[in-house]
Amino acid sequence: xxxxIIEEIGHVKAIRRKPQALxxxxxxxxxxxxVKRGDSIAVNGVCLTVSEFDSRQFIADVIPETVQxxxxxxxxxxxxxNLERAMAANGRFGGHFVNGHIDGIGTIRAVRSDSIAVxxxxxxxxxxxxxxxxxxxVAIDGTSLTIFDVGRTTISISLIPTTQEDSxxxxxxxxxxxxxxxxxxxxxxxxxxxxKPGLTRGFLAEHGF
Length: 209
Prior knowledge:
Blueprint: E1 8-18, E2 21-27, E3 40-43, E4 46-53, E5 57-62, H1 64-69, E6 80-85, E7 104-114, E8 117-123, E9 137-140, E10 143-150, E11 154-159, H2 161-166, E12 177-182, H3 184-195, H4 201-206
Antiparallel strand pairs: 1-2, 1-6, 2-5, 3-4, 3-6, 4-5, 7-8, 7-12, 8-11, 9-10, 9-12, 10-11
């Protein structure tokens, strides 16, 4: 489990391409402070398992399903990546529940400055729009963000200066691809309602949800 608060921006040092899969070597420092083999680290929002590491880098495999459903295939040697360690049980929960399982790929369609903030409009696959709610949460490239506008197939998010500086999203522009993870609680709610037909929106509203 992650929070969507990026700890550092690392860089892809090497890519070993396998049949439909990848092996990434990522140079970094902060996320290596207490790392162990088998630990989870989110790379651009994708939960990966550390297979090897030393004081300057770690290695992780990317399975075929993840290659197909995320922007991992677009990485190149030298590419910057957002990094976050799995949340410690006694840590602060600064973002929202993020599990590192990408739901789809979005495309940045517009960027505008808004005082100290930068607003980015992202086109989302129509099948994911049911999870996008005004003032709700979404993880973009692993960064926990609040949705400030919802269109037919787009969402808009606003980046404060800290997020612009500390995450990769601040560097991306029109036409760039991003990993999208929908709000975990929204997905669980939908699945529960599907499994229990009697659990309707009216029932939830009646009982204070």
